[in-house]
Structure formats: C-alpha cells, structure tokens
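Recap slide: TetR/AcrR family transcriptional regulator, sequence and predicted structure.
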Amino acid sequence: MPIADPRPGGRAARVQQAVHDAVRALQADQDNDFITVPKIAALAGVAPSTIYRRWGDLGGLFADVAVARLRPDGPPDTGSVFDDLTAWAEQYIEESASPTGRKFMCDMVSGGADRASAIRGGEYARERVKTMLERGRRRGERVPDLDDVIDVVLAPIVYRIIFDPDDVPTGLASRLVRRLFDDIPSPHTDPA
C-alpha cells in the first residue's frame, strides 16, 4: 500500500525521488512484467527491503510513480476560468494519452484494492480544478461547480485514455469545457 507523500526534503524525499527515477528509467526500456524490485533497488542505490517497506509491492510502487507523474506543478493561470480549464484539460490529455501516459494511468488505477493511488491521483486533479475555480470566483467570473467539472470534463477524458483503444479526439478538451459552460445557468438579476 503506497504511503502518503513524505515531508519535503530529507532522506525520505531523496529515496522516493531515486526510486521513482529508477522506475521511470526502467519503464522507458521495458515492460513492467520484466521490472523487478532488485533491478529498481540497484538502479536507485537502495536496499530492496526499503522498497518493500515503503511501497509494499511493485503494484503499489508503479501506482505511486504514476500518481507523481500526473501531478503537474500547478494549474494554468490564463486570466479566465474557461481558458484555464481548457489549457489544463489539454495538458492532462497530452501527458496522459501518450503510450507512456496511458501505462501510468493504468498503473495508478490498478494500484490495489484500497484504491489509494487512484484516489490520490483524483485528489491532485480536484485540487488543480478547485484552484482555478477559486481564482475565477475572486475575479467575479461565472464559474462551474467543481463536481460538474469532474463529471463533464475530467471523467470523459479519463474514460477515453483508459478504456478507448483509439486516440483521444482532437479538440476534445475545448469541446468538453464549452459544454460545461453552456450548462452553467446565467446569472439573473431581480428587478428592483
């Protein structure tokens, strides 16, 4: 079972970074079926027991690496919620719909019965969206509901990436965001 993110800095963060880097390097050259804890440990410069103690098994480690990969530096800030959400969704598709991204997404959602990695990946996405929506509210913009963004924009993208054998259609992000904003009720004013 993956553990929560370690505190910034310190040995725990250095070990996590070294192990994640080793996993990504090995995954670039071979399928997960051929990656072993001893190979990862040797490349990362840690003992195999460190990996087992921290991540439990390879599935948990692969899921943790996938979640970390999907955590961008921060949500875009274009000056409007519509453009922020569109840019974020396009970036999400670009990073996640590549062959490597799809592999990482599948690793994240198959991380274990407790769904800890998938839930954490979802929390990262939710936090990014929440930040964009809060900025828009402060600017006085018409802003969609957080759950509507998840249901109308993110869920169809994740479905396309994980379950659809075809490439994600061009322009999907902007179409979904447009649909989301078309469904937001217009503010009405009460006559005085």
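Residues 10-56 form a domain with the Arc Repressor Mutant, subunit A fold (CATH 1.10.10.60).
The CA atoms of residues 160 and 166 lie 8 Å apart.
(End of recap.)
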